[in-house]
Amino acid sequence: MPTNFLHTPIDYLNGVGPARAKLLKAELGISTYGDLANLFPNRYIDKTKYYKINELVPDSAHVQIVGKVTHLKTMGDGRASRLIATFIDGTGSMELVWFKGQKYFKDNLKLNEPYVVYGKVSKYGSKYNIAHPDVELLKEHRSRQQSAMTPIYPSTEQLTKRNVTNKMVVRMMQQLFSEVQNSFTETLSDQIRAQHQLVDKNTAMYNAHFPKSAALLQQSIYRLKFEELFFIQMELLLQNRIRKSRIKGYAFEKVGEQFNDFYSNHLPFELTGAQKRVVKEIRADMGTGAHMNRLLQGDVGSGKTIVAVLTCLLAIDNGFQACIMAPTEILAQQHFQGVSELLKNTGLQVALLTGSVKTKARRVIHSDLEDGSLNILIGTHALIEDKVVFKNLGVAIVDEQHRFGVAQRAKLWKKNNLPPHVLVMTATPIPRTLAMSLYGDLDISIIDELPPGRKEIKTVHRYDKNRLGVFSFLKEEITKGRQVYMVYPLIEESETLDYKDLMDGYESVVREFPAPQYQVSIVHGRMKPEDKDYEMERFVKGETQIMVATTVIEVGVNVPNASVMVIESAERFGLSQLHQLRGRVGRGADQSFCILMTSYKLSNEARTRIETMVATTDGFEIAEVDLKLRGPGDMMGTRQSGVLALRVADIVKDNDILAIARNTAIDLLQKDATLELPEHASIKKVLQFLQSKKGLWKYIS
């Protein structure tokens, strides 16, 4: 059989044809025999058991019955029209009902011939019935490829409309495997298969579609999941290794005067053990001459900014400049204020560049940047504009990097002859399983320790009926000199969503907290930047006690005196967003509080989110729950990353297999870094194919 057999266009498969092939390509991306072979079932149904009609009970899920159709009749008119078949098996009778495809079944069903029917049982009056059952002549049922478990394949609304049923897909798959035989190329080495007791590729592929037993199905799916995760990890590890060996970076060989002076004389607090560990990792990276590409994870308030400053100082001590790029003006301003305050007594020059900076000020920044007198530039995507030219950029720090596109980041790397060292920071904790698959090509540092003296934020859940009690508590806190955030999910009233909107909320807060005793600010995304800045500035200065806002304050506002966060309609927010919002308080020495306000109508998922927030302030624990609730595709913009386009494996459910696959890949590369050993030839071949960006499941020979 030719090695490219699985490249055969799907049109040529018996039972498909051009029209159906076009539909399969449009709906499921199936163009070739290989594509169809790699359409794996979502689930399996055990069809080894046959029921008798007298054994049926109402709503008894899906059943399989052998019997005969003795009578057909059409009832009703128009949309109420239906075809009813009387079906008997010797123990009783029932009805089979079709609302769609009536003509087909009326013309093709054979009376008094043995059939096997399959479907979900209902009871109407005294009669059992199955609506739209799978129907197959008993002799055909016995002659075709049989397995203990029947696969249920992915489908779409269009496929269903065009009568491409699961039964039809199963028949296509049977035809395919009768032609394909054992033409799947083994991708793993004998040693790896023996080490992990993995079945061979052909056995795995056949039993994934036509399992001969539950045990073989389990072994086959495990093998395919391992293979998928193993090659993802091999790609990521090789990318990391290649980058370190080929992409040269600037060697920051000395820890000089600026770093040592700041560390000894200007550091406002003792670093935590976690911060010290991370700084050492960064120093080691940047001292080697290889290009640093490191991800820094740190929960809200864990002290990433001070690590960023120390990283910048290492660059400056070695004759280089540094930049910090943030996704929003608010966050860029926050970084600028924080870094400027920390470095105010060092004589170093720090500037802010955003879309709001006036032309005259921009000219000064551009000039100082080019002559090297500007040491650190902080800004938004304005930093990557072509006219922004550094004299000698040595390190680029990117905050919340998942908010930037690949092309945007690439422009930053081209701001010097050799790419600057890269430190990517995120305050959104990424579960380890997801980090291994998304950022396996980055080195990862984690600040998993909060600064001393920080009190844990007390989080409570309150229903709308408790609002007066909540307002009383807010007044008590304001009397103590504290400030309050009140966050709403919507700006304007929505006809379809029954949630408090921002303007209604603002009006009710102003009524409850009247001037001149109380001052209330309002901030939302539709305000002019200058108005937003004015309101925020009033709150920062303590001129207003309450900030009513949308999630615009999710990142960027740092008010140590704000000790209470009230989140209205908290059920509307995701876990990550709730955690980020809560992180706006708890920045001072006072006890801080987060109050989650909801209606009584909570879905199970929303209740889980609220209960998780009340139970823990650990961002990594919250991220694990978030991953289980939402799946990897919806977190961190990973849907665009490509690396998670998994066919068989599931990052959440299969994290144990992921860890085994990664360790296997690490061990293999330690023994044979270039994959030159004969036993690794198949693995090398797959990786070469993957580098052409065609994907693992397009691999044929």
Give a short synopsis of this structure:
It comes from Nonlabens mediterrranea. The chain is an alpha/beta fold.
Largest sheet: 7 strands, parallel
Average predicted local confidence, pLDDT? 85
Instruction: Provide the spatial order of strands within the biggest beta sheet.
Output: 11-12-10-13-14-9-15
Helix content: 25-40%
Shape: globular
Structural class: alpha/beta
Low-pLDDT sequence parts: 495-499, 636-643
Instruction: Evaluate the radius of gyration.
Output: 32 Å
Separation, N- and C-terminal Cα atoms: 12 Å
Amount of beta strand: 15-25%
Helix count equals: 24
Q: Count of DSSP E strands?
A: 21
Write the layout of secondary structure elements.
Blueprint lengths: L16 H12 L4 H5 L5 E4 L15 E14 L6 E7 L4 E6 L3 H7 L5 E11 L2 E5 L2 E4 H6 L5 E4 L4 H5 L4 H15 L9 H6 L5 H9 L4 H33 L10 H10 L6 H14 L6 E6 L5 H14 L3 E5 L3 H14 L7 E4 L5 H13 L4 E4 L13 E7 L6 H8 L7 E6 L5 H7 L4 E5 L10 E6 L3 H13 L3 E5 L14 H11 L7 E4 L5 H12 L5 E4 L12 E6 L7 H8 L10 E6 L5 H12 L3 H12 L24 H17 L9 H10 L11
Parallel strand pairs: 4-6, 9-14, 9-15, 10-12, 10-13, 11-12, 13-14, 16-21, 17-19, 17-20, 18-19, 20-21
Antiparallel strand pairs: 1-8, 2-3, 2-5, 3-4, 5-6, 5-7
Helix pairs in contact: 8-9, 9-23, 10-12, 11-12, 21-22
Describe the structure.
The structure is a single chain. With 701 residues, the chain is an alpha/beta fold. The protein contains 24 helices and 21 strands. A 7-stranded parallel sheet has the order 11-12-10-13-14-9-15, with helices on both faces. Strands 16-21-20-17-19-18 form a 6-stranded parallel sheet, with helices on both faces. It has a 5-stranded mixed beta barrel with strand order 2-3-4-6-5. α19 links the parallel β18 (520-523) and β19 (546-549). α10 (257-266) packs antiparallel against α12, α11 (273-286) packs parallel to α12 (304-317) and α21 packs antiparallel against α22. The longest helix has 33 residues, at 214-246. The protein is globular and about 95 Å long. The termini are close together. Its EC number is 5.6.2.4. Pfam families: DEAD (PF00270), Helicase_C (PF00271), RecG_dom3_C (PF19833), RecG_wedge (PF17191). GO terms for molecular function: DNA helicase activity; hydrolase activity. Keywords: ATP-binding, DNA damage, DNA recombination, DNA repair, DNA-binding, Helicase, Hydrolase, Isomerase, Nucleotide-binding.
